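Q: My labmate handed me this sequence with no annotations at all. I'd like to see what the chain might look like in three dimensions before we decide whether it's worth expressing. Could you predict it?
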Amino acid sequence: MTHGLRLFWPAALAACLLRPAATPAAEPAHPIVPGFERFAAAAGPDAAGGQLLLGELNCVSCHQADGRDVTRKQAPILDHVAARVRVSYLRAFLHDPQSVKPGTTMPDLFRTDPERAQKIEALVQFLASTGALKQERPDAKSVAPGRDIYHTVGCVACHGPRDNQGKALKAPADAVPLGDLKAKYTIASLSAFLDNPHGIRPSGRMPKLLNTAEAKSVANYLLQGVKVSAPQGRGATTFAYYEGGWDKLPDFDKLKPKEGGSGAAFDVGLAHRKDNFAFKFDGVFRVEQDAEYTFTLRSDDGSRLYVDGQLVVDNDNVHPAADKTGKAKLTRGVHKVTVVYFQAGGEIELAVHIAAPGLGQLNLGDLVAPTEEELETKTVRSDPKDEDFIELRPELVEKGKELFASVGCASCHQLTAGGKPIASSLKAPALAKLSVTGGCLSPAPAKGTPSFALSVAQRNALAAAIKSPPAEAKTPEEVIARTMTTFNCYACHSRGKVGGPEDEVNKFFQTVQPEMGDEGRVPPPLNGVGAKLNGDYLRSILDKGAHDRPYMQTRMPGFGDTNVGHLVKEFAAVDEAPAVKAVTFEQPLPRVKASARHLVGGQAFGCVKCHTFNGVKAEGVQGIDMTLMPKRLRHDWFLAYVQDPPAFRPGTRMPSPFFQGKSMLPEILDGKPATQVEAIWVYLSDGGKAQMPAGMGKHSIPLVPVKNAILYRNFVDGAGPRAIAVGYPEKAHLAFDANDLRLALLWQGAFMDAGRHWTDRGSGYEGPMGDNILHLPAGVAFAVLPSGDTPWPTLPARKQGTYHFLGYNLSEDDRPTFFYSVGNVKVEDFPNAVAATGKADPSLRRTLKLTATGAADNLYFRAAVGTKIEALGDGWYRVDGAYKVKLDSAAAPLLRQSAGKTELLVPVRFADGKAQIVQEFVW
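A: Here is what I predict for the chain of 923 residues:
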């Protein structure tokens, strides 16, 4: 058997895994486990498929596995379930799970029990006591976006397609049905679940895929026509709703509400618009002990909380979601609470919690009622005509709690009561002692035995697994195959020619670049992924998901590190990394990066034609961002792949810039493909700080000095908001910082791209367009030092008070001389480019003329700062091996250690009030 899937189905796997396994048409509703339905349902009695079912149907939550290799799926957490799920749904679902939600793995606990109705009602009473359902008005404008999101980002891969009204269409046999979502959820509760599915279903079979706004849109699409009821009693407050624009909480006594009534406690979803509204909520709650209580108020935007008329928490003003807390000493009994809130724009959020010693933190919304009378009735719905109406009866709530422990609910589900999870009291035999013809496996289970409504194939597979447990998954490939089957990874990805999208959903995998074909729309095969992806990055995308391929609309969802994090190790163990030889460079790294920047540009290999760069779109296909690659990919894989892409991904559109092992640009670096690709890796490893390839972007306006110098005054990255960039025809350029009176940047090649500042609003900083950028020391260039060990001043020039910028003059060819003063000294600073000669690059010569108009003792010029500065003779110094400076002055330069760095200082010596320093830069 190939592809390492021996663990599952050793017979004729290559054939059966590549097509959907059709379930017989007459087969009644039964649990849908995607991996089983696709790969084992038609394979006959299959122990490996049964092993999968033992975990996915939660068999091992009741029956001890005795060391069997079973991956258990935790059932949904039921803490506060009544705040998420309708009471009417809970009642109907417990009565007949498969009828209410076809495909559910939840068994019918009481099918043959003569006390079925009474026990179900007791459980419903207990579950209903855990909270109150939050309502939210439907948003018709979100339906269409929600439909598009559902069908493009990946939901359809597991759940199948749906029509414009959200009703299910034809889907693969292994698609997980959603059931009647309107009967189960409100928009608020479904949105919350889609936003954070692992909070309720931590086992990761439902992965994290949507952000908060998308979750709300999808909820509106799936719940079209949902009814919104107005709850009263516990879990409700009165409200007054206002519309208007504010930047802080208004005086509500001076406003007339647009609407009022009773509703779910602190429910800002009752608003009729998305911004510029406010609420005032009033209610009462009871505490059972004298204590100091802590209230937490989370909101976006402003809010305040009052208890018995006293301000306890102030979270006012426009701001993103933020928590504020306050404390109040309360006596045992009933207290009034008022919460006021306003929304200006952006996200909408309001949550209120209460905590006390020994109590833990509780949602205050679950504890409040509009009036003291309604608080005493302990109802969560006041209208008997409402199908979700229930009047809680303490004796039934207690009986339901006992049943939750005794009938097995607590074996699978977590539900906290009294500060700790309810423990199961159900005793069940170990798997090894089970009969394979009776119990849960019987087509007609006896009294007291859950009914899973298993299909014939499922019963046979479970029986086979119980009688003859398959071997433990030991090899990395076996563990990978089991995990990908368990988490339905094969719905999107293939590995070893197994899996991939099925016919019914294939067309829903879309791309914004149709010309890329299947490579641009279908998630990539996972062959060799362990050799390809950096381990930390792979762990991150398995945990949280990612959307690295801007051309592909389907995303990688997050399954949670606890669930699938082990795949990082397994992929790395089985996927062999390509062998590459180490590369060393003869040139300094700035030169290497400059060469690489040219290589990826449009005049060389053309990488920028198809790949975005630090968020800037490419001219054509929007491939994976190049600056993300060193973080995302393994170094050796990148080097090998770029040299020969088809060898790693047959049929890829990624071209090779090399032919028969030779570069088409032999004059760059040493001309060897390995050296050039290594240089690109080094360049891209700067991430967001990497210099953008020249000319990239829609509004590129390159400034090219030809005969005269060019001055560009603007926000220059690395030189501050008062930068004066100077471009010289010799192709050595600079940026002068007029705030700190210093030479800030030197670079070579291209000058500046004015596109950012000369189009649209022109905001933000722009970096140099060229290469080999040299960042010179921050801080002022001249300072008075009373002694040789006085630290160089760190305050900005403008805050020291003795530094002043006096402007500049231009020569006939527009080369500037900068003027500034330092105390009693005036400085003429004339930097000038020096043309390249022979193999040497262009350099820069700077002449500083100083005139003292008063006392100017102990003045120093700081010429360089570095970790290591070496004297080379004849006035030259090498700084950190990156560049050289030469100094010509009346006083000899000195080296000193200060603040953990080496500084090269020049004492300024005046003669007749004059001094001159000449500084040359070669880099």
